[in-house]
């Protein structure tokens, strides 16, 4: 038994907690990668975007994987802004305002968007217009993307960011060394609490993000059926 474990009897328990929290973080990140790729697929197929799908890199750190997903989420934000700019440029002010009027019938909004896409692309499906309207009108998606980008940046910049995502298979001591670095083992409780805080915020934001994406992708599936 390590001396620190003798001095601090709760350390073995905290070590296990730290490893479990790390695995939960990786699982949550993996789900976000999958959800993001679903949205990327919809944007590429129906709105003519060319966003490259992403995957977690097992040889990279948490920070590097955070940066991968931040980059594509920022690109999604850019594409949504581009759609808005196109609508604003091609439509008369009255019609543009209708797109954001919650009292305006959804079918009317889709018809307006389809008209704009027909000008831009030469032709446009109702599915493309529906996706555009959903993206433009979804404060839920906009806010969840912004929130998640901020949290990913925080995680990447924290002590968690330097840990490899494959470290779970490398053994307890290597995980602890990577997570804690020069931190004294008597500060394990502080490390665990910090991890818990980051993870709780990240999981909550991730659930909202994934739900917002599901709202878009489920509409597309219903339309195709």
UniProtKB/TrEMBL annotation:
Signal sequence range: none
Top-level taxon of the source organism: Eukaryota
One Pfam family it belongs to: DUF4533
InterPro entries assigned: DUF4533 (IPR027895), SMCO3 (IPR040004)
Protein name per UniProt: SMCO3 protein
Species annotation: Zosterops hypoxanthus
């Amino acid at each position: 038994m390590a001396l620190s474990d003798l001095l601090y009897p709760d350390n073995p328990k905290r070590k296990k907690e730290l490893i479990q929290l790390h695995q939960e973080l990786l699982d949550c990140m993996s789900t976000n990668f999958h959800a993001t790729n679903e949205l990327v697929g919809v944007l590429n197929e129906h709105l003519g975007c060319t966003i490259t799908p992403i995957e977690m890199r097992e040889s990279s750190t948490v920070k590097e994987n955070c940066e991968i997903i931040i980059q594509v989420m920022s690109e999604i934000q850019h594409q949504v802004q581009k759609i808005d700019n196109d609508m604003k440029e091609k439509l008369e002010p009255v019609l543009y305002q209708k797109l954001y009027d919650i009292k305006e019938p959804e079918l009317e909004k889709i018809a307006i968007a389809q008209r704009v896409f027909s000008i831009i692309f030469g032709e446009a499906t109702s599915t493309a217009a529906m996706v555009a309207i959903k993206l433009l009108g979804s404060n839920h998606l906009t806010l969840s993307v912004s929130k998640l980008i901020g949290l990913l940046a925080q995680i990447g910049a924290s002590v968690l960011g330097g840990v490899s995502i494959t470290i779970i298979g490398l053994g307890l001591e290597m995980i602890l060394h990577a997570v804690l670095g020069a931190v004294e083992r008597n500060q394990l409780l502080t490390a665990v609490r910090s991890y818990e805080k980051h993870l709780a915020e990240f999981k909550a934001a991730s659930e909202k993000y994934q739900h917002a994406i599901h709202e878009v992708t489920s509409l597309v599936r219903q339309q195709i059926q």
